[in-house]
TrEMBL record:
Keywords: Mitochondrion, Transit peptide. One of its GO terms (biological process) is mitochondrial proton-transporting ATP synthase complex assembly. The keyword Mitochondrion applies. GO terms for cellular component: mitochondrion. Its main location: mitochondrion. This is ATP synthase mitochondrial F1 complex assembly factor 1. It is found in: Mitochondrion. The keyword Magnesium does not apply. It holds the Pfam family ATP11. InterPro entries: ATP11. Belongs to the ATP11 family.
């Protein structure tokens, strides 16, 4: 929910920000979370004054001071993400008279074996995902690999999802390159009650197709399931209360 930022001094706000981040990231030095071009104190004060004049998401207070542009960009080249036009993927004229079931099957068949992930969903679910993502843009998801897991960092800014490794994000901030991008196409939402989904694995060395598909399904489940979404809200709005072990428990993964 959007709310007006309370007036806090720069010193108190900065201390709270770093404390909130430390709650999740542990004892690593704060400098490891900063992008290469962090704010100087004068620009930080100016930024605070600017932010206080607008109703903004609560998570901006926690992260904006660290130099993370959480509402407009994720990585160089993805500001904003350029979505591939739907008519460059499928022949719109040839599918316009097909049933929703046929269209979903055609969409899946087209992407099979092409190094992409495809899926579809009902517009009702898409709008719920869109609404919830507008308040909570970020989350962390453990990806199980063998005897352990690697943690992925997700940005959900509809009609896109972007995933990168948490370690890369901690090291590079907004310069971290996404491993996996997802685009949602709503052209058939009204006529066929269907939203088409396309995923592209950017770095196949970092993420397999099956892992990417699991990430997409899991991220959607955290935003669309009421119980799981509480963890997303906690991560974005109540960082000090967030416990990563709760995410592991929700996914039936051991707390290593």
């Amino acid at each position: 929910m959007l709310y007006t930022m309370q007036r806090l001094s720069t010193r108190v706000a900065s201390r709270n920000v770093l404390s909130s981040v430390a709650t999740f990231f542990g004892s690593a030095s704060y400098s490891s979370f900063l992008p290469k071009q962090s704010f100087t104190m004068p620009s930080l004060q100016s930024k605070l004054q600017n932010m206080q004049q607008h109703a903004i998401p609560g998570d901006m207070l926690k992260w904006g001071l660290l130099g993370f542009c959480r509402t407009s960009k994720f990585a160089t080249g993805f500001t904003p993400l350029q979505q591939k036009p739907l008519d460059s993927i499928i022949d719109i004229e040839r599918v316009k008279n097909r049933s929703p079931e046929d269209l979903a099957a055609i969409w899946d068949d087209y992407h099979l074996g092409r190094g992409h992930i495809s899926a579809s969903m009902k517009p009702k679910l898409y709008h719920l995902l869109e609404e919830r993502a507008s308040h909570c843009r970020h989350f962390v998801i453990p990806l199980w690999r063998g005897s352990g897991y690697t943690t992925m960092f997700a940005q959900v800014q509809m009609p896109h999802m972007l995933f990168t490794g948490l370690e890369d994000y901690k090291a590079r901030g907004t310069q971290a390159a996404p491993y996996f991008t997802v685009s949602y196409y709503t052209e058939y939402a009204e006529s066929k009650d269907l939203v088409l989904i396309r995923g592209d694995v950017v770095f196949t060395s970092k993420l397999s197709d099956s892992e990417a598909k699991w990430l997409l399904e899991t991220a959607q489940s955290f935003y669309l399931n009421d119980v799981r979404y509480k963890l997303v809200e906690r991560f974005n709005k109540e960082t000090r209360e967030f416990e990563f072990k709760d995410v592991l428990q929700a996914l039936d993964m051991p707390n290593l």
